What we know:
The structure is a single chain. The protein is mainly α and about 170 residues long. Among the domains are: about 60-100, no CATH class; about 100-145. The protein is about 85% helix and about 0% strand. The protein contains 4 helices and no strands. It has helices at about 1-75, 90-100, 105-155, 160-169. The longest helix is centred in the N-terminal third of the chain and has 75 residues, at about 1-75.
Amino acid sequence: MSNDYLFMNQDLTQQWLTEIQVIKEQMEGLQHDRDAAWESAQKWRQLYNTEAEQRRTDAQLSQQAIASLKADLHKLKGLEVDTLAAGTTVTAIQEEIEQLKSVEDLQAKLIAVIKERDRLLQALKTEQDNHAQTRNSLTTALGDAIDSLTRERSLGVGDKETVRKGDNS
């Protein structure tokens, strides 16, 4: 009877050791998945921060351009008679206008200036739209990565397959 007891005890010990090894491997796999999700989230954060910094720089440059254009407008209206931002003096602009021989020439020049203004306004609007779209895309991607990481952290060892199946659907 002691031999039977010894074999049963060894079988039970072997089963426990096998179970412990399986759980250990599952833990290692989960830790690896967690680390990979964390790295992914870090990369997304970095991309978001890089894009946000670029957009802040673009916004600042746009604000400077707007301020410069406003200054130019004030100068053209005669509020300031100094030098324009581009280095062209009001006198030079007046000379260019005086070279226009007819009302038709003046109208053509005005049309060209308005077309250029409209083109620049459209380019600004396109850039603003692109900025908003990029910001939304990066915010959504970052949120998804964080949600995935949170889900991974909150699930137990046996729930690992549930996450994988959920990600495939």
